[in-house]
Amino acid sequence: MSVDRNLQVVVLMGGWSAERPVSLMSGKGVADALRERGFTRVTELDMERDVASRLAELQPDVVFNALHGTPGEDGTVQGLMDLMGIRYTHSGCTTSAIAIDKELTKAVLVPHGIRMPAGTMVDSESLYAADPIARPYVLKPINEGSSVGVAIVTEGGNIGNPIGRETPGPWRHFDRLLAEPFVRGKELTVAVLGDEPLCVTELKPHNGFYDFEAKYTDGVTEHVCPAHIPADIADAMMTMAADAHRLLGCKGASRSDFRWDDERGGGGIFLLEVNTQPGMTPLSLVPEQARQRGISYGELVERLIEEAVR
What we know:
Layout: E1 8-14, H1 20-36, E2 41-47, H2 51-58, E3 62-65, H3 76-84, H4 93-99, H5 102-109, E4 120-123, E5 137-140, E6 151-153, E7 176-181, E8 186-193, E9 196-205, H6 212-216, E10 221-224, H7 231-248, E11 253-260, E12 269-275, H8 285-292, H9 297-309
Parallel strand pairs: 1-2, 1-3
Antiparallel strand pairs: 4-7, 5-6, 5-7, 8-9, 8-11, 9-10, 11-12
C-alpha cells in the first residue's frame, strides 16, 4: 500500500528516561526523513507528563514512537495510546512490557529453544558481602535498555572482591540486579524488519565493552556490517532473532543482541535481549542494516509508518 502523505503524524520523542538524548536524536531524524519524503503534517512532540492531553489536542492519524527506555518502551505509553485509539509504530503494550523485562523475556523464549545466559536476581546490598555467581559475570538492571547500568565483574577488576560499597556501579543506583555468566567472544546484533531478519553486525568497541557510551559516541565502536562470521552461524543467529521477534509478538522493527563464543561453534550463540524500540540515530544499527539491504533511511521510516497504519 502507499501511505497518504497528508496523514497527521506525531513523532513522539524525548521523555525522561536515561536514554532521552538518544530518543531526541532518533525523533529528529525520523521527522526530517518524513518531511523529505513529502509528508506535510509532521509534528515533533517531546513527551512530558501531559502527553495524553497533548495527543488529544494533536489528534494524530499515527504516532511514530521514537521513545527509548521507560516509559516509552515498557508498554506504558503503548497502553495509553491503545486506550485513546491511536495507531503507533513498533510493538504493542504486552510485547513491550515483556521484552523490556529481561527475566520475562527469558521465560517466553528459553522454553522454545532460544539459548540465553542463565541468570539470577540479586539484591544489590548482597553484592557487598559476596559474589552471587562465579566471576566473570555481568550485572544489569532488569528493565533498562542500551546497556544502561551494565557492569562486567572480573577477577582482576578494580571493584574489589567482594564489590566495594563505595565503588561506582549499578549496585549504587538499582536495588535489584540481574547477574549472568559473562559470555566471552564476539558482540553481534540482528535487526528484524516486519518479520524479516536483515543481517548480522559485529560490534567492536575500541575500549571496554559495548556500553551506552560505545553505542552512541561516534568513533568509539567499529561496526562490521555484515559481520565476518561463518555463514551457518549468521544464519542461525538471524533465525533466532526472527523467532524471538515472532514469539514475543514484536511489530515494526526489533533488534536482538547476541554474544557468540566462537570456540563453541553453533552452541556458543547466546541471545542477550530483544529491543522493541531500536534507535534511529545516525549511528544506530537498524538503519545501517537496512542500508545493507538496499533500504534507505527514509524508506525504512515510511515502511514503519505503513505497517502501523495497516
